[in-house]
Amino acid sequence: MLTLLELLKDGRFHSGQALGGALGVSRSAVWKQLQQLESDLGLSIHKVRGRGYQLAVPLMLLNSVDIREQSKDCPWTVLVFDSIDSTNAEALRSIELGAQAPFLVLAERQMAGRGRRGRKWVSPFAENLYYSLVLRVDGGMRQLEGLSLVVGLAVMQTLRQFGIVGVGLKWPNDVLVGPKKIAGILLELVGDPADVCHIVLGVGINVNMQKTDEVDQQWTSMRLESGLQVDRNQLVARLNMMLKAYLARHQLQGFASIQEEWEQNHLWQGRAVSLVAGVNKIDGIVMGIDQQGALRLKVDGIESVYSGGELSLRLRDDS
């Protein structure tokens, strides 16, 4: 089936006879595979008598060779999957099996993509970026301070390179364009954070997605913002290089050296918000972040600091 997709990905018409010849199957077998592509992958295929079959939208599939060629300064092993439960889950399995970090896991589609707090991450085939970079961390907690915020900065700067205007950050792990989410970050840790551990830097970016009924919040994509289809191989390569630069800076100088830059790009700086933890809610004004990446919030005139993976920040109705 994926061989057939390779033949169709250029978006041109291909006759059933030509496709059958290339695959070594009958025209009826081609028809069945086309139906399966539509059903399993959610692709739209045009069928025109006398002309053949054409993908409604051309596909640019992920290619590990192209990615390595475009990001030669990042000699990471690149693993590309057609379909997987989630790239973070595969990364964690690979760590358990002894895979040597750093390595990168990518997928065309996730069947069980995850966001923060167990939320579903919508993952249509060959439209968005599902990205998990595995790093080995030696030397304790300092290298983990504010790490998810550092990744957010790298994602934001990469999107700006592609002309996405108005992109900024929301504490702790979201990348927004105005009120709309365009990317999210999920970090997962294995091992002893005080000694030696592995960290999975999971990034999901809405790239070429133009519609979905599965997202329960305001969202946008690179294509919706720019009007252009984005080459995801180029996007991965640029994100690799941006991440490498920010991670090196973080390792050498600590998060404190990046704190001010992050605050300058926080879209909710100075805004009235509610900090939600389960059924509990704290209302306050965003003052910024501290040198470990925790949120500084003014509550009833007193500044307090909050951190934790289960916290969620929301704008107050009166902000």
Automatic annotation (TrEMBL):
One of its GO terms (biological process) is regulation of DNA-templated transcription. The keyword DNA damage does not apply. It is an enzyme of class 6 (ligase). Residues 69-251 form the BPL/LPL catalytic domain. This is Bifunctional ligase/repressor BirA. One of its GO terms (cellular component) is cytoplasm. The keyword ATP-binding applies. Keywords: ATP-binding, Biotin, DNA-binding, Ligase, Nucleotide-binding, Repressor, Transcription, Transcription regulation. InterPro entries: aa-tRNA-synth_II/BPL/LPL (IPR045864), Bifunct_BirA (IPR030855), Biotin_CoA_COase_ligase (IPR004408), BPL_LPL_catalytic (IPR004143), HTH_11 (IPR013196), Transcriptional_repressor_C (IPR008988), WH-like_DNA-bd_sf (IPR036388), WH_DNA-bd_sf (IPR036390). Pfam families: BPL_LplA_LipB, HTH_11. GO terms for molecular function: ATP binding; biotin--[biotin carboxyl-carrier protein] ligase activity; DNA binding. Belongs to the biotin--protein ligase family. Its EC number is 6.3.4.15. CDD domains: BPL. The gene is birA. It catalyses: biotin + L-lysyl-[protein] + ATP = N(6)-biotinyl-L-lysyl-[protein] + AMP + diphosphate + H(+). Residues 16-35 bind DNA. It comes from Pseudomonas chlororaphis.
